[in-house]
Predict the 3D structure of the following.
Amino acid sequence: MSSALQQYRITPNSTTSSVAVPITPTPDYVAQLNSLVHSQEVLASTGYIVKELSDEDLESKKRCSGCGIQMLRLQKNEKRNEKRNEQRNNKKKDKEHAQDEGNLERACAVSVSSSSSDTSSDGPVSHGVALPNSTPRMRCKFHSGWLHLKAWSCCGKNPTDPPCVQREYHIPRSDVSGETERLWQHHPTKIGQTQFSHRAAVAIDCEMGTTMSNDSELIRVTLLDYFSGQVLIDKLVWPDVPMLHLNTRFSGIRWPDLHNARRKRSCLFGRDNARAAVLKFIGPSTIVVGHSAHNDLTSLRWIHHRIVDTYILESALKEAAEKAVTESPQKTPVEPTTVSDTSPKNADGGQKRPKGRGLLSLKTLSKVKLGREIQVGRNGHDSIEDALAARDLVHVYLTSEDNRAVHEILDEEIRSMAT
Ligand SMILES: [Zn+2]
Ligand SMILES: [Zn+2]
């Protein structure tokens, strides 16, 4: 470990708010940081979008013109139902098969003991073949009107009454203006020459609100220089889609803040401008550090391939530790992180993994590994604090001998996560 690294020490159990301590980018340190960059397979399997969305992907982002649910979600539900039905049918078949065998045995016993041949009773039944169902299954149910004076305008029924329109299939909304592409397409970092403004490594954190169509939408973006800790961007983002709420409890952002920023024109306008602001500092070789950063990149509709994600690192560490315990119960886990809750992330990032809860959360990791309390109080997250915590976790990982000792196991673990 070079002496330059030793100068940076995070004081254990210090509960003071986070202050960025500069890290010297020695060749050794930069090489170590580079070695943590995840493969595209790992990124793809942990919720990152690694290539531009295909026409099919975009189609699945459309919503049903009737019930308004996203086609992707409907497809997933349909698949889940099919699987459940198949399992149920298989169980039924097994049960009937067992019954048939029982019947057959009984029938044989009867025919041996008696010459009578009564075949009408207890004969084998349907073998699980469902009778054709004459009424089609109605998948799409909705009210075609709107709620007015506590009644649906379409049918006059109460708000909680069952939908008055039913269709056999969902029909995606037509998209003549290319809105789906505009809303959902992801844009890769430009390949080309490194500019003077491009940083070697940055840490990112974004805050999101919820749109009227129940999607996550960028409302604040924060970017730090990994080495100097300098705040490169910390701006509110005025969303260019109708919003349901700002998720204030977690985002810490209120409407007056946003309106104020818009009036002063101190915010960024829309996610495309936010992405453009971020990309000023990002070249093709820039390493982006974050915690569950697929959510942040998705909120910017941004594709970047050089990522170090502390959630992925910590998941792998935890799995390696668990494996060490299983394989050799008398051995101490390789990494005594007291985390014990994880499951593979949802590949489309649909299931949001909050950074503020759970044992692999940034909040817990920051407390356990950095001795630093973050996300305290009622004001929600502070993106600067969160981005800095992710950066410092990576730094601890790179400078702690314990962590480096498991580097090889970790490599293998991370590789296996992608398969
Ligand atoms: Zn109705
Ligand atoms: Zn529908």
